[in-house]
């Protein structure tokens, strides 16, 4: 029997440390309660309320951690929906959680998503929904399954001003990406900062709405990407070497992702902008390391 479950946040347990940690003030959902945990399948959901987010830091990360019993898949797709009192809609993100730790017959899955305070119009309150996307499997969540962290001075090389778009000051080492047409012209990226343009007029072609880029990764390496739209709004997506989508993010003025590779090969980034007619420009920062802290 499915029941509604409500639990007010009482205490914080150990989680990966990164910047200033912010724990939810309330947690509830629709599923099967088991002590302090809630088992949620594709017909249910879990929700966390953060009501005391500090005003410091323009960038935040969200760690999602859920448990799953054997048999366990190589990845666990979920839908995350984020909202604040100043937004008039829920922002949806489709993310694949990856195995992180095993305890007996249970496996802990984890993912990290980056947000920008300005884009979410974030004050002190943030709402988060998790909806499993893998049929037939129920995940175990609790009050500490979702944790926010405040970036300490991140993005110091970027300043934004104006309404709707902005002026971004890029570090001097930023490199321009050549214009690509279609999915066959894909550029391989190394770690660094890049400037790109979508919708530029190329003789013999209509303005292109998207850029496709490649990053070579080894299993266990962590890809971190930051995207800032300089004109209009741009979406960001990550595809594995087989062409399957792993992260799809809706168009926004600022986006970021962090993903640990599960296979060797050329992972693909897609930048798609909503106002390509005038040649929408963006700033892309790529970093690769051996694992999450």
Can you tell me about this structure?
By secondary structure, the protein is mainly beta. The chain folds into two domains: 148 residues, Sandwich (Jelly Rolls); 115 residues, Jelly Rolls, CATH 2.60.120. It is 1% helix and 52% strand. It has a 22-stranded mixed β-sheet that branches. A hairpin with a 7-residue loop joins strand 7 and strand 8.
What count of domains describes the coordinates? 2
Question: What is the highest CATH level, the class of the largest domain?
Answer: Mainly Beta
Strand content: over 45%
Uncertain regions: pLDDT < 50 for 5+ in a row? 1-18, 153-172, 201-205
**Percent of residues in helical segments?**
under 10%
Give the distance, in angstroms, between the N- and C-terminal Cα atoms.
Answer: 40 Å
Radius of gyration over all CA atoms, rounded: 20 Å
For this structure, the CATH topology of the largest domain is Jelly Rolls
Helix-and-strand structural type: mainly beta
CATH architecture of the largest domain: Sandwich
Mean pLDDT: 77
What is the chain-wise order of helices and strands? EEEEEEEEEHEEEEEEEEEEEEE
DSSP summary: helix tally: 1
Identify the overall geometry: globular
Characterize the biggest β-sheet.
22 strands, mixed
Keywords, separated by commas or semicolons:
Jelly Rolls, 1 helix, disordered N terminus, mainly beta, 52% strand, 293 residues
Give a concise summary:
With 293 residues, this protein is mainly β.
Give me the secondary-structure topology.
Elements: E1 3-8, E2 20-22, E3 26-34, E4 37-40, E5 45-50, E6 59-69, E7 76-83, E8 91-103, E9 106-116, H1 117-120, E10 126-132, E11 139-141, E12 146-150, E13 175-176, E14 187-188, E15 192-198, E16 210-217, E17 222-229, E18 234-239, E19 245-252, E20 254-260, E21 265-273, E22 280-289
Parallel strand pairs: 13-15, 14-16
Antiparallel strand pairs: 1-3, 2-12, 3-4, 3-5, 4-11, 5-10, 6-9, 6-12, 7-8, 7-10, 8-9, 8-19, 9-20, 15-22, 16-21, 17-20, 17-22, 18-19, 18-21
